User: Fold this.
Amino acid sequence: MRAELSRVLALQADRVRSTPLSQLDRARQGADVTRAELVRRTAQVLADLAADAEGRPRRELPHLALHGLGDQLAVTGADVLAHGDPPALAAALEAVLELRRGL
Assistant:
C-alpha cells in the first residue's frame, strides 16, 4: 500500500506541477470546482490524515498560489507516507485517486 501511494502521489504531484496555471484555475467540463480547489481539498485531506497519525491537532493548510499546489500535495502526502498506518494509507490513496479522476 505504501509503495502504491508513493507512486500515485508522485505522478499526481508532477501532473499538477506541469499543468498550465490557466487550466488549474478552471473547472473541468461538467465540474463545479476548479482543478486547483480539487488539489487543495486533497492536500487538506492528506494533512488531516497525517495529523491524526501523529496525534496532533488538525490545522487548515495555507492557501498557496497555483504554482505551489503540486509541492503542497507532495509534502502533505509525504507526511502520510511517513506516519500513516494502513487505514490512513488506504484513505490517502483513495483521495489521490479521486483527485486523478477529477483532474
About this structure: The chain is about 70% helix and 0% strand. The radius of gyration is 13 Å. The longest helix spans residues 35-54. The CA atoms of residues 50 and 56 lie 9 Å apart.
